[in-house]
Amino acid sequence: MGKGLDQLEDQLGEIKDDGVRYAELKWTQLRLRIVDNLSMLLSKAFGYIIFLVMIFIALTFAMLTVALVVGEALGHLWLGFLISGAAVLIGAFVVYYFRDVFVVHTLIRYLIDVFFPEDEEKDGTKR
User: Fold this and answer.
1) CB distance 126 to 120 below 8 Å
2) What is d(CA 122, CA 101) in angstroms, rounded to the nearest whole number?
3) Is residue 83 a contact partner of residue 70, using CB atoms and an 8 Å limit?
């Protein structure tokens, strides 16, 4: 009877060790998935930031051109810059007013797609 209990105890110890190892592997998988998703998110964010900076520079030159053309047409450069500045200010207020539609909802949808891709199996691994 002692031999049977020793075997049972050994098997239970192996099951416990397997369970601990499984938990460690799942924790490692979760950490790797977080690192993968964050690195993808940061690389895309960096690309978007560079894109936005380039758009900002292009729009700055375009607004300077518009200000000069309008100023020359009206006979006063300062008036052209004033009108261009007012147009940018109105645009800024429109963007601020609709910021939830332009930024927040888009960002939330993007983050959901990054962290919860649709092609995952039930166990959390990608196909």
Assistant:
1) yes
2) 32
3) yes
3-state percent breakdown (helix, strand, coil) of the chain, nearest 5: 85, 0, 10
**DSSP 8-class letter at 100:** I
Tell me what pLDDT residue 88 has.
Answer: 92
Q: Give this prediction's pTM.
A: 0.56
What is d(CA 57, CA 51) in angstroms, rounded to the nearest whole number? Answer: 10
pLDDT, one tens digit per residue, over 9-59 is 888 888 888 889 999 999 999 888 888 888 888 888 888 899 999 999 999
Task: Give yes or no for a contact between 127 and 119, defined as CB atoms under 8 angstroms apart.
Answer: yes
What is the Cα Rg of the chain in Å?
30
Instruction: Report the C-alpha gap between 119 and 56 in whole angstroms.
Output: 36
| Residue 125: pLDDT over 80 | no
Picking from 80, 79, 50, 76, the residue whose alpha carbon sits closest to that of residue 64 is 80
Q: Are 4 and 82 in contact (CB under 8 A)?
A: no
